[in-house]
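Example record used in the benchmark description.
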Amino acid sequence: MPAPLPRAIRLLVVDDSAYNRRNIAEIFTGSTEVEVIGKAADGEEALRLVTLLKPDVVTLDLEMPRMDGFDLLRNVRHDPRWNGLPVIMITSRIAQKHRDLAQQLGADHYLGKPYDEEQLIALIQENVAKTMPA
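Model output (structure tokens):
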């Protein structure tokens, strides 16, 4: 179990489905450990929010309008300001080719939908604990 963090983890939720964004946010309602600081419906909006809000971790869907999850991940990984930003892909695309591409592009984890909420919580905490100073 990771050591306690100095403040709440700042999470950005990126998914084109309002239902999915709401579901992920509801997992952390009332949590003192994770705060959902923003929600984005596509990659372009998410890229703007990453720059504006500076999250500690991002959950990212694959299939979205304007800029898909792979393109957003490419943009984030090619920007030195976001070096080390944990990105957890959460998608219905569970084929190995999608997992492989996500890994090549720098995704920290790849969860298929439906996902296990406890696993998501643990992944967020473990990944941020590696990057957030104690």
